[in-house]
Structure to design on (344 residues):
């Protein structure tokens, strides 16, 4: 991180916290007082961060409305400094913030929707990575399949929630059409976020598929992950899960682990 | 079916279908098409633009905002330009 010299960091402090700068910076201006000048900077600073959050959390904005969202981001910006020169890194704390945000307590699903939107945002900006090489996989002898360690693509995220967040997210996309009725008590949902051809995808996974993927994400070998998933979910269908996840570009590569 | 057979069947079907998803190649086959983005749905913008980047276009078809499209597509779109 680049450290600013004292004068500039003093000005930055003034902008962030709305205090008058104490340093030697020439703040004299014929038309504006120092306080008003700082307010102009301060407004731009907050406006930029607000626009950034609108870009990352369009579903949250639709769910609570523009005015409420402006209030929410104002509080968020007051509590969370931008810690990177790259604004794409700003806003990670939104899910935790919303969970503790008193005026939004009635919307119990809001924190999980925020977590899903952050995952989509991260997926969009994640590094490129190769897709699973099927030809390379074809060279692995079947007796070694249980030792396969599948590597997850950097754009892939799994967001698990007690609420139907996948349906909520899809209902607030531009492409959404028709009458939506979402039953908030319709049970948990496992949102799979991935990126294919530069487009971020959000798809719903069954409990069994999500449990298996979580195990694979943790670096568990294919044999063990599948066996333990089948133990808890006898209906788990590895074939269907693999086809679906490969089509969603969830895996980037694989290695072979030791036989336990 | 035991676990080993399940794995063989599942990976076998993957190999048989020859499922190929090639995401990384797509990025290299895209071009930046200016002047066609819908408000709030641009992929990014030129350095001359008044906003930061993705999703921040404030009006439709701003000449400074672009959408990434497959190579060769931009010239076919009315109002689309490869330069801002």
């Amino acid at each position: 991180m680049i450290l600013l010299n004292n004068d500039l960091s003093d000005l930055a402090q003034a902008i962030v916290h709305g205090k008058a700068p104490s340093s030697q910076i020439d703040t004299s201006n014929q038309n504006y007082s120092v306080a008003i000048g700082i307010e102009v900077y301060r407004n731009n600073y907050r406006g930029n961060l607000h626009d950034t959050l609108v870009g990352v959390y369009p579903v949250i904005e639709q769910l609570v409305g523009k005015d409420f969202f402006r209030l929410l981001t104002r509080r968020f910006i007051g509590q969370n400094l931008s810690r990177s020169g790259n604004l794409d890194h700003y806003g990670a704390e939104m899910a935790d913030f919303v969970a503790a945000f008193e005026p939004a307590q009635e919307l119990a699903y809001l924190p999980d929707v925020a977590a899903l939107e952050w995952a989509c945002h991260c997926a969009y900006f994640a590094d490129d990575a190769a897709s699973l090489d099927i030809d390379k996989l074809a060279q692995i002898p079947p007796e070694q399949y249980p030792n396969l360690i599948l590597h997850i693509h950097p754009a892939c995220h799994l967001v698990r929630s007690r609420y139907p967040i996948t349906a909520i997210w899809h209902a607030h996309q531009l492409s959404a059409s028709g009458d939506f009725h979402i039953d908030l008590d319709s049970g948990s949902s496992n949102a799979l976020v991935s990126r294919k051809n530069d487009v971020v995808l959000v798809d719903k996974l069954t409990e069994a598929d999500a449990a298996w993927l979580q195990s694979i994400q943790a670096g568990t070998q294919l044999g063990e992950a599948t066996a333990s998933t089948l133990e808890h979910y006898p209906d788990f269908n590895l074939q269907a899960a693999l086809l679906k996840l490969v089509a969603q570009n969830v895996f980037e590569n694989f290695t072979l682990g030791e036989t336990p | 079916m035991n676990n080993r057979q399940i794995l063989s069947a599942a990976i076998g079907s993957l190999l048989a279908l020859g499922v190929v998803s090639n995401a990384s190649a797509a990025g290299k086959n895209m071009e930046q098409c200016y002047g066609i983005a819908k408000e709030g749905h641009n992929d990014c913008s030129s350095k001359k633009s008044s906003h930061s980047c993705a999703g921040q276009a404030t009006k439709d078809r701003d000449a400074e905002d672009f959408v990434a499209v497959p190579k060769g597509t931009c010239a076919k779109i009315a109002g689309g330009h490869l330069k801002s």
The beta strands of chain B are 30-34, 44-45, 65-70. Chain B touches chain A at residues 3-4, 6-15, 17-24, 26-27, 30, 40-41, 51-56, 68 (CB under 8 Å). The CA atoms of residues 35 and 57 of chain B lie 11 Å apart. Chain B has a mean pLDDT of 76.
